[in-house]
């Protein structure tokens, strides 16, 4: 029932051979995802995220900056602080050690969320259509 937020295979940071310069969990002057403190079974203190809530900003060495959004409503359980000291694992192991955050969706919403997910084949078809329409 948890959701692990990672970079998609098609994300520009994973495609173009860019180098990640920095990762910043400071979203605004008053909001840092690093200040998220969760305790207990009911996950008290967890920051609540909407689909459009920014999780972090990633800067690449060529000056481009990417804001990574939650894409899901729920409580922020954990951010991956390991990528702060070793940003390369975001690119080297994006679906395992290089995850960005862990989000716990509301129990009532978790079923509709998982039903709306694409299979790997459907995701690849969407990417293919995007590629064909842009070329």
UniProtKB/TrEMBL annotation:
Look up keyword Iron and say if it applies.
no
Its GO CC terms? dendrite; filopodium tip; growth cone; lamellipodium; nuclear speck
User: Which biological process annotations from GO are given for this protein?
Assistant: dendrite morphogenesis; regulation of actin filament polymerization; regulation of filopodium assembly
Q: Under the GO molecular function aspect, what terms does this record hold?
A: actin filament binding; actin monomer binding
A Pfam family reported for this protein in Swiss-Prot or TrEMBL: GCV_H
Compartments, record wording: Cell projection, Dendrite; Cell projection, Growth cone; Cell projection, Lamellipodium; Nucleus speckle
Q: Which domain of life is it from?
A: Eukaryota
Q: What is its main location?
A: other
Q: Which UniProt keywords apply?
A: Cell projection, Nucleus
Q: Which InterPro entries match?
A: Abitram, GCV_H/Fam206, Single_hybrid_motif
Is Nucleus among the key words of this record? yes
Which family, according to the similarity comment?
Belongs to the ABITRAM family.
Q: What is this protein called?
A: Protein Abitram
Per UniProt, what is the name of the gene that codes for the protein in this document? Fam206a
């Amino acid at each position: 029932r948890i959701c692990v937020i990672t970079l998609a295979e098609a994300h520009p940071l994973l495609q173009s051979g860019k180098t990640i310069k920095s990762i910043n969990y400071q979203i605004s002057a008053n909001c840092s995802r690093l200040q998220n403190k969760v305790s207990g079974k009911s996950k008290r203190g967890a920051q609540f995220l909407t689909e459009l809530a920014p999780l972090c900003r990633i800067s690449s060495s060529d000056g481009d900056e990417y804001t990574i959004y939650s894409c899901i409503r729920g409580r922020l359980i954990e951010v991956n602080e390991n990528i702060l000291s070793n940003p390369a694992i975001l690119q080297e192991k994006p679906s395992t050690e290089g995850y960005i955050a862990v989000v716990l969706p509301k129990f009532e919403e978790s079923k509709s969320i998982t039903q709306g997910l694409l299979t790997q084949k459907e995701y690849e078809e969407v990417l293919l259509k995007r590629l064909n329409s842009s070329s």
